[in-house]
Amino acid sequence: MANSASATASVRSSNAIVRSRLRKNAIIRALSIAATVAGLSLLAWILGDLLFKGFSTLSVSLFTMDTPPPGSAGGLANAIIGSLLITGIGILIATPIGILAGTFLIEYGRGSTLAEVIRFVNDMLVSAPSIIIGLFVYQVIVAPMHHFSAWAGAIALGIIALPIIVRTTQDMLQLVPDALREAAYALGAPKWRVIVVVSYRAAFQGMLTGVLLAIARISGETAPLLFTALSNPGRTTDMSSPMASLPVVIYNFAGSPYADWQNLAWAGALLITFSVLTLNIIARSFAPKTRN
Amino acid sequence: MSQAALEANQPRIGAHPGRLGNALFGGSAWIFAILVLVLLAGVMISLISGAWPAFQHFGVSFIWTEVWNPNRARYGALAPLYGTVVSSVIAMVIGVPISLGIAIFLTELCPTYLRRPISTAVELLAAVPSIIYGMWGLFALVPLMQKYIEPAIIGSLGNIPLIGDLFQGPPYGIGLFTAGLILSAMVLPYMVSIMRDVFETVPPQLRESAYGLGATTWEVIGSVVLPYSRVGVIGAFMLALGRALGETMAVTFVVGNSYHIMKSILAPGATISSSLANEFAEADGLQLSSLLAEGFLLFVLTFTVIGMARLMLLRLQRKYG
Questions:
Q1: Per-residue model confidence (pLDDT) at position A6
Q2: Half-sphere exposure (CA, 13 Å, Cβ side) for B305?
């Protein structure tokens, strides 16, 4: 009798344990689903707000007129031109340097201490705050030249893009099988030809993804431009003068008390966010399917 | 074919084909790789040299002085330093559990067909420029905070003894707490994508055998996945902390720009990056140097945290490939 009673008790208590384990599990499941829903709603909320507030301000004059003084009509043409120039030149500076540096890490220095140290420092630079790069360029270029310039802005953005390009180049070259390189060597090709004709060609899509992601990253950067390219109410293509850019104009206009400036800021925000997101999605479609 | 053309096609014995190309290509690759190191050294040296006058004038006590007065030319970094750390800690307190939840969902619960779209959506959250977060925070979040969320916090948490002081005062809307909230949204995707990768390093055999013993999803995560990937998860958190400490535009809009340290985390404050964004372009003399000194402190703070995070992730990579 005692035996069967204790057996029932142990069944009952083990049922209770199972129930509490399942309950705990259900709670964790529900919480993690809730966290995911929260993250996705946040994205929807931000994009929805941008569309809602920015879409009504989209017009042709946005692309033809320059930033106005408060109270009059205007557009963002000078800022769009400035952004394209500064970002474009920044990426032109960063791409060859970044690709060659990434090439060194894999094709020349693989396994060496120097390459390991450079790789580590580069990874730190990827996550470095962009405002610090802005201070650096201010100290090195703006302060000695005694004036703000679009060149300084382009160089600051280039420095931010550089570690991203180094990183992806290195990751993608690492995926190229050595057998391909050896086959080219066996045909008598010099090392630089092997790298250019075999390694680069095999890693091309991935490297392109890196460059596109770097463009997406720097085209929304604001902080480093505040101390370098500054802004300019007029339209200019002179790289040695201060130049307006979309992010800085958004910063100045969104914080202003004028409704028409705030509307222009929303329009700019919509433009920049959707171009950055589109670039990201295009870049992802180029990315090779194998993950490292 | 003429004899001359034939000879031109013969490789000349003794000459190494492509030697010049090799030297040029390899040399420039080496120079540009070294440039990455030079860049880090350059950042450090330029900040130290710019900060030197401020440290000379105020001494090391610059770091723990709570005053920022351009009229009397008195500067100290304590208030922005405090704001930087507090807003980042708030971001981590809010962001860590949520990112953990999303990472668990993506690796353990999510149906396969949803995994890719949800991962992409979370990564797009990382692609949204920080100025957009700032602007959205100012126009969408601040009014909500002021009207509903902060009064609710003040009414409930504000009355608890000991920690109540942290949640008192008028609901400004702007302030360190709002800044931390936006930061948590910004660093969320970084944590999720690293954690997801780290969770995937757990060998499927370990996971499957735990499930085979009848473990629930939570038990597999809590007793197998998390202990196995501990180093990587902490690395992910620290990398996100490094981001939060240096983030500028998202914070500048909503932090309030006040150089007084208040007891309440709901009160306006300043961070190093927000004070740089607000004052740097118009500053000169001692103010400029004090701002650069702040920048140097931020550099030390973020690079220490990021460096430690990278070391942890590197250790994990070495261990599990």
A1: 63
A2: 22
d(CA A105, CA A118): 8
Per-residue pLDDT band for A1 (boundaries 50, 70, 90) equals very low
User: B115 to chain A: nearest residue by CA?
Assistant: A36
Residues B165-192 have pLDDT tens digits of: 888 888 999 999 999 999 999 999 999 9
Whether A283 and A216 have beta carbons less than 8 Å apart is answered as yes
Q: Are B280 and A226 in contact (CB under 8 A)?
A: yes
CA dihedral B138, B139, B144, B150 (to 10 degrees): 20
A80: Cβ contacts below 8 Å, ≥ 6 apart: A63, A246, A271
**Chain B partners within 8 Å of A284 (Cβ):** 120
Backbone phi, psi, residue A137, to 5°? -65, -35
- Residue A62 is which amino acid? L
Give the angle B165-B167-B168 at the CA atoms, nearest 5°. 70
Per the CB < 8 A criterion, the answer to whether A126 and A253 are in contact is no
Q: Which of A120, A130, A135 sits opposite B295 (nearest CB)?
A: A135
A264 in B contact zone (CB under 8 Å)? no
Rg of chain A's alpha carbons, rounded to an integer? 27
User: Mutation test of the interface with chain B: which of A17, A103, A136, choosing the one with the most B Cβ atoms within 10 A?
Assistant: A136
Nearest residue to B39 via CA among A160, A236, A172 = A160
| Separation of alpha carbons A119 and A116, rounded Å | 5
pLDDT tens-digit readout, B47-64: 999 999 999 999 999 999
**Contact at CB, A121 and B36, closer than 8 angstroms:** yes
Residue B314 CB neighbours (<10 A) = 16
User: Which A-chain residues 55-84 have CB contacts (< 8 A) with chain B?
Assistant: none
The answer to whether residues A55 and A270 touch, using CB atoms and an 8 Å cutoff, is: yes
CA distance B218 to A281: 33
Q: And the tokens for A111?
A: 């396994």
Ordered by where they begin, the domains of chain A are 61-286 (1.10.3720.10)
- Report the percent of chain B where pLDDT is more than 70: 94
Residue B123's Cα: distance from chain center in Å? 15
Largest Cα–Cα separation, chain B: 101
The residues spanned by each domain of chain B are 53-320
Look at the domain B53-320 and name its fold.
MetI-like fold (1.10.3720)
**What are the Cα distances from residue B26, in Å, to A15, A167, A250, B32, B277?**
69, 18, 43, 10, 40
Q: Is A117's CB within 8 Å of B37's CB?
A: yes
Instruction: Look at residue B273 and tell me whether its pLDDT is greater than 80.
Output: yes
Q: Are A4 and B196 in contact (CB under 8 A)?
A: no
Nearest Cα to Cα of residue A162 among A124, A114, A196:
A124
The verdict on a CB contact (< 8 Å) between B18 and A191 is yes
Q: Tell me how far apart the alpha carbons of residues B165 and A55 are, in angstroms, rounded to a whole number.
A: 43
What pLDDT, in 10s, does the model give residues B185-195?
999 999 999 99
- A288: exposed, middle or buried (C-beta count within 10 Å: 0-12, 13-18, 19+)? middle
Which residues contact residue A274 at a Cβ distance below 8 angstroms, ignoring those fewer than 6 apart? Answer: A50
User: Mean pLDDT, to the nearest integer, of B138-148?
Assistant: 94
pLDDT digits (tens, 9 = 90+) for A50-69: 999 988 888 899 999 999 99
